[in-house]
Structure formats: structure tokens, C-alpha cells
Amino acid sequence: MQVIGGDDSSKIVQITFASHVTPTEESAFVKPILLLDDKLRVHVLPSGNSELNLDLSKIFFFVAESRNEGTTSLKGYDVKRSKDGQTLKATLLWELNLRGSLLSVGGKSSNERVHSQGRVLPDRSVSYKYMNPNLVAIATEESAEGNINIYLIDAVSGRYSHFIRT
Description:
By secondary structure, the protein is mainly beta. It has one domain (2-165). It is built from one helix and 13 strands; from the N terminus they run ββαβββββββββββ. The strands form four sheets. A five-stranded antiparallel beta sheet has the order 3-4-7-6-5, with no helix packed on it. The longest helix is centred in the first third of the chain and has 6 residues, at 23-28. The two termini are 25 Å apart.
């Protein structure tokens, strides 16, 4: 999700993804960890465990990174299997450049379950709790102007949902 360490030649990236729990994961108490290298290859740990079947259609992630010129780069990826089926590769889906230096990124936890997406009101209309489960909030700071920007972005499609400048 976000660059959390490293230097100019390598980056440590935190990736969270929503995936259903397979019976194997539940019985073995094993949840896979995905690691992304600098060539956008995705490595699954524990490796060599053929019983872990990841549903690749549900794995999307993004990388948020501050640049030196006071902008923030946001890149969204999905994970695809190679033609031989042996390796996984991250494929760029979208890219955004946001104004200001990155302050914070927040979203729904990948293990958070929503039992009821809405509440029925007395007039029988429904008040929805979430606009979009893939929505993330990104805060950036424009030091020269003294502004803080908050972007609400769909992490799967890369579409802006809302923007606020204070």
C-alpha cells in the first residue's frame, strides 16, 4: 500500500489485499504474505506451498511515494500469473500525480468485515455506511502555500471520489 522503508535503490512496500479465506488457510492457520521486488515480481510466502490458492482476480494494491519536487506519485497494480503459471507479476493499472508531499494514507483494514452495509431509516430509506469499500484517504501537504490536501480515491480503479483543500 505504501512505501514504508528503503532507500533510492530499493523500497519496502506494505501491500494489503482483500481475499477470502480458503479452507486450507483456515485449517492450517496460514495466511500468505506477498512481497514485491524492484522488477515488479510478486513472491508469495510461505513459498512452495501448493495448497494455498490465491484468487488473483481480487488482489489489487497501490504504492504511494513522495517525490523530491513536492508531489506524490500513486500507482495502482493488480497481480497476474505468467504464461507458464510459475511466477506472479504486478501489472500497472493506473497512475496519479498528486500535489504536495505525502503525509498519510488510510483505508479500510483488509481483514475488516462489514456485516451490514446500510441502516434502514424510519422512512424505510437506507443510509449506507460506506460509499466504496476500496476507498482510501490520502493526505498531502503543500508547504509553500500552507495547504493540506485530502484525496479520496478508489484504490482499484484510480478514480477520484472527492478532494478537499484546507
